[in-house]
Amino acid sequence: MSEVTLTALRASLEGTIPSEIATCDADGIPNVSVISDVHYVDAEHVAISYQFFSKTRANILVNPRATVLLKHPQTCAQHRLHLHYLRTESEGGLFEAMKAKLAGIASHEGMAGVFRLLGADVYKVIRIDTVRPDQLPAPLPRTPLLAALRQTLARLAAARDLDSLIACLMEQLAAEFQMPHVMLLMSDAGGERLYTVASHGYPESGVGAEILPGQGVIGVAARERTPIRIAHATRDYLYGRAIRDALRASPLAHRLETEIPLPGLGHSASQIALPLLQEGRLLGILYAESPEEGRFGYDEEDALAILAGHLAEAICRLSGETEEATPPAGTARPLDSGAPLVIRHYAADDSVFVEDEYVIKGVAGSILWLLLGEYAKGGRTEFSNKELRLSPQIRLPEFSENLEARLILLRKRLAERCRHIALDKAGRGRVRLVLARPVQLIEAEA
């Protein structure tokens, strides 16, 4: 019989069936307790949730050896882990991943507000014993993830610009990975906030919606630079209406006019967020959710983590497009038909309103205001990405991919909200402003 590996037992580490841990005190007196979460760290280590100072906790501090009984939720197999306690982590990626997972388990068990993670106790796995082999066949995977990953990576490698890369990603996640509810968010300068550049499977795209680091599954994954996965619905990590209702009742209610709602399911039972990292720098977050409990397991996390790594490389590769050697003139005849569109700009946050309807703010807002200003001065409609990147008026953050991502955001937002204004590609590394009516620009006071 081949030796059992910890990686092969990950389905038993989802918390679906509670595990038991046995420890001994300094005098050798044993104690057995039920534990909420045994978490896979790597092929040689697990972490166990530390929620309160129990007999188990007291025992391992004086006698660092323990055994844990795992039960597979589908095959009914049982395995015993022989462990040696190493350390306790009370912050960082591992702690936050376990905290989110535990919140889902607690909600599923009707113990929300009772389970509270104090630390992640890390153990080295010394040996694995098979107590009872499989009694039932393992279920077939819902999606052939390796084939889906291979197909998706090939399609992403063929993308010629950031816009087509993102569109391809959304299509592949729905078609190949069978994940119909997904979002891609990009990171602002210094990781101070995340903004939505694409989504799939929601009534409203939510393009331009923002999340702060630490807020929900997405924000925690961004702050800790680590995957965060929840298998059961929990109020601790919900987005959307609850946040807006709280804001509406606060002194900050006036800010709602410039807040774009984040898209999301009415009942999100499973969530997963993967950071896009390039040499330790956070580029963004890939997020998926499902109304089905337990939709995302360790295998989905592995596949999406590989995808996120390739996606980060592709974003960097496709950012900063080379301009065409001979760009077109890029001017248009003044529009003299129709009433002027009244467009207001607020310099405090670069928010732009068209006919009193909020459109966009931040860097994307400053880009739109610059384009409109150049048109108003001389009828100019075409611009190079290079000149936008270098413009002091836009105050673009340090990293170049921020421009391409914001141009995509701005184009989509205009398509959704402004039928008289559009932003088109005018060739490689160039954009074209398209207006259907004259414009009246107003620099408004705060």
Automatic annotation (TrEMBL):
InterPro entries: GAF (IPR003018), GAF-like_dom_sf (IPR029016), Split_barrel_FMN-bd (IPR012349). It comes from the Bacteria. Transmembrane segments: none annotated. SMART domains: GAF. It holds the Pfam family GAF. Residues 161-325 form the GAF domain. PANTHER family: 5'-PHOSPHATE OXIDASE PUTATIVE DOMAIN-CONTAINING PROTEIN-RELATED. This is Pyridoxamine 5'-phosphate oxidase. The lineage of its organism: Bacteria, Pseudomonadati, Pseudomonadota, Alphaproteobacteria, Rhodospirillales.
